[in-house]
């Protein structure tokens, strides 16, 4: 490819609305242009990157025995009504009508469509297991599209769906996809972790997210420094503590009653615990939620935070949201900051951390007042105790008791064990060996193509620009003739480019009439892994230069050897991206 004929418009300016480095660099390197919020044009070099990601996805999906299909972006509402998600999915689902007033949506994920396909085509246990995948344009009307390809509204996803005769088979299909995902991200040269995750909108019994480790990641994850446990903090389990804590007061006596104390203007955990001179861990924090199953008060120790995902799952609710000031007043008779479980006529659930408070303090459901000497089980009775809080720095690993490390990650892939959620609702059944009708057991598996490319940049860049892992770089070798007017410089550049091209290397020849400084800056910015520079003096002396974009290592090589050496470096870099 020749730069003079190629549309890769690089810019020096940092785009003002790009908050993360991958977004900035994709714009600056001419890979991406915005059309509307979360909707983009992929420029030629950007598209080359996405195609390379897709190629790796296809190779690994095919190798794992999955079959490629292509399903439509436009999906009729009937299928989504059958699964029950038409009502459950919320505003991320872009819905519209055709000219005959029939309802459709743009598919944000394709469980319904693929389940419909399989129930029509698969009749017998002999046809199972089957895994279908596609690489297709998804639409999600994200509330906050941002970070470029990281969180777009229209984006490419590789989504795969497995159908098995039973749980055992489903476990095997899940394992195959999990292993394929590990190979995929290793082939892209990424530092990643597979962690336990919540199943969210998709549903199912369990799931793993594949996280690329990066400080800019939107997700917080924990991983054990001793064993292989890792989890999204949304999911990370907190063990039920054995010890009981005692605040100032009666130490958990059976007799007696709470005492009311004045706490004028003291609302937050910090204000109240300082004012009352008590350990925040003995405060019983009371949060009111409006949920799809009614109002719920959630109790947690003042040393911890409530985990809304756990609350939602515990209640089996479609949504939970913190009640606003107005609703808090209606439910407790007091402004927020003074809620407490004693005498509260609202369904109440409590985190394990509350059970271990022998005697604590809590809001009195009255402005400017709290109760002390409050004993759980004596003064209030939650419906039950459960793990409802966020994991904290002090928590041990729930598997081995080891130390948990916190880090941030970008979710690039997600695998789910779906069970029979969709196959049951949509009657995807088959006949078993005995001729008995049975429901297929499903799994689903997604990877964001653009998000993965963006995550690769988050992990591989420096002050000068992108440092592509070679397996997903738009080109493998950049050739820079420093001065086009020098015929032997240009001839040497053409020669080495043609030689490498003949060996199947993807060469990008910067034949623009630009100053050398600009060419070098653009080469660094666009991140092509290997650079060959042909300068006037070197060429006159029979030499050229090879530079490794990642290490900055430069070597002066005889012209005759230039293609061989560059080829060898490309091969070494490819070997670094081995699965
Ligand atoms: P998130 O929590 O980040 O919104 P999700 O859990 O909704 O992601 P899935 O439904 O599991 O995502 O989708 C599978 C994959 O699709 C994700 O792992 C991610 O790589 C990609 N993906 C999801 N939403 C987007 C988006 N808005 N833009 C780009 N890629 C996305
Ligand atoms: Mg999402």
Describe it:
The chain is an alpha+beta fold and 579 residues long. It folds into three domains: 3-185 and 415-458, BirA Bifunctional Protein, domain 2; 245-386, YbaK protein; 475-576, Anticodon-binding domain (Rossmann fold), CATH 3.40.50.800. Helices cover 28% and strands 29% of the residues. It is built from 16 helices and 32 strands. Strands 3, 7, 8, 9, 10, 11, 12, 22 and 25 form a nine-stranded mixed sheet that branches. A five-stranded mixed sheet has the order 17-15-16-18-21. A hairpin with a 5-residue loop joins strand 5 (95-97) and strand 6 (103-106). Helix 2 crosses helix 12. The longest helix is centred in the N-terminal third of the chain and has 21 residues, at 167-187. It is globular and about 100 Å long. Bound molecules: adenosine-5'-triphosphate and magnesium ion.
The third-level CATH topology of the largest domain is: BirA Bifunctional Protein, domain 2
What is the global morphology? globular
Number of strands: 32
How far is the first residue's CA from the last residue's CA?
29 Å
Instruction: Classify the helix fraction into a percent range.
Output: 25-40%
CATH architectural category of the largest domain: 2-Layer Sandwich
Summarize the structure.
With 579 residues, the protein is an alpha+beta fold. Helices cover 28% and strands 29% of the residues.
């Amino acid at each position: 490819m020749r730069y003079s004929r190629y549309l890769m418009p690089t810019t020096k300016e940092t785009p003002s609305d790009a908050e993360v480095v991958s977004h900035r660099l994709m714009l600056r390197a001419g890979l991406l242009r915005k059309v509307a919020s979360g909707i983009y044009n992929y420029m030629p070099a950007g598209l080359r990157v996405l195609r390379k990601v897709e190629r790796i996805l296809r190779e690994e999906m095919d190798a794992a025995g999955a079959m490629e299909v292509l399903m439509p972006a436009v999906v009729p509402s009937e299928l989504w009504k059958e699964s029950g998600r038409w009502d459950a999915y919320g505003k991320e689902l872009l819905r519209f009508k055709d000219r005959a007033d029939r309802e459709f949506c743009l598919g944000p994920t394709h469980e319904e469509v693929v389940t419909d396909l399989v129930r029509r085509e698969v009749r017998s246990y002999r046809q199972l297991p089957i895994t279908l995948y596609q690489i297709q344009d998804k639409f999600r009307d994200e509330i906050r599209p941002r970070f470029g390809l990281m969180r777009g509204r229209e984006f490419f996803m590789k989504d795969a769906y497995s159908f098995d005769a039973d749980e055992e088979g489903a476990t095997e299909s899940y394992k195959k996809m999990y292993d394929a995902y590990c190979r995929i991200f290793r082939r892209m040269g990424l530092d990643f972790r597979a962690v336990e995750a919540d199943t969210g909108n998709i549903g199912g019994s369990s799931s793993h997210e594949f996280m690329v480790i990066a400080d800019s990641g939107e997700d917080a994850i924990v991983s054990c420094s001793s064993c292989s446990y890792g989890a999204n903090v949304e999911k990370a389990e907190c063990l039920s503590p054995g010890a009981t804590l005692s605040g100032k007061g009666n130490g958990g006596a059976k007799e007696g009653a709470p005492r009311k104390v004045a706490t004028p203007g003291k609302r937050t955990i910090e204000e109240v615990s300082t004012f009352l001179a008590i350990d925040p861990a003995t405060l019983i924090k009371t949060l009111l939620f409006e949920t799809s199953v009614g109002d719920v008060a959630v109790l947690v120790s003042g040393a911890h935070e409530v985990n809304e995902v756990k609350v939602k799952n515990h209640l089996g609710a479609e949504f939970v949201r913190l009640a606003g000031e107005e609703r808090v007043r209606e439910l407790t008779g007091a402004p927020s900051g003074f809620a407490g479980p004693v005498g509260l006529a609202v369904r109440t659930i409590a985190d394990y951390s509350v059970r271990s408070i022998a005697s604590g303090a809590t809001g009195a459901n009255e402005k400017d007042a709290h109760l002390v000497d409050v004993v759980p089980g004596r003064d209030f009775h939650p419906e039950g105790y459960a793990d409802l809080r966020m994991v904290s720095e002090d928590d041990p690993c729930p598997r081995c008791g080891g130390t948990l490390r916190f880090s941030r990650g970008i979710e690039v892939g997600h695998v789910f064990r779906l069970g029979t959620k969709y196959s049951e609702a949509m009657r995807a059944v088959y006949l078993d060996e005995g001729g008995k009708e049975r429901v297929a057991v499903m799994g689903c598996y997604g990877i964001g193509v653009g998000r993965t490319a963006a995550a690769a940049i988050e992990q591989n860049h420096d002050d000068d620009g992108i440092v592509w892992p070679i397996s997903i770089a738009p080109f493998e070798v950049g050739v820079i003739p420093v001065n086009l007017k020098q015929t032997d410089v240009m001839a040497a550049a053409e020669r080495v480019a043609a030689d490498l091209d003949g060996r199947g290397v993807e060469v990008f020849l910067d034949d623009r009439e630009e100053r050398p400084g600009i060419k070098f800056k653009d080469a660094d910015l666009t991140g092509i892994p290997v650079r060959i520079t042909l300068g006037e003096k070197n060429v006159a002396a029979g030499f050229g230069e090879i530079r490794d974009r990642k290490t900055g290592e430069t070597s002066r090589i005889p012209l005759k050897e230039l293609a061989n050496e560059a080829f060898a470096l490309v091969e070494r870099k490819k070997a670094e991206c081995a699965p």
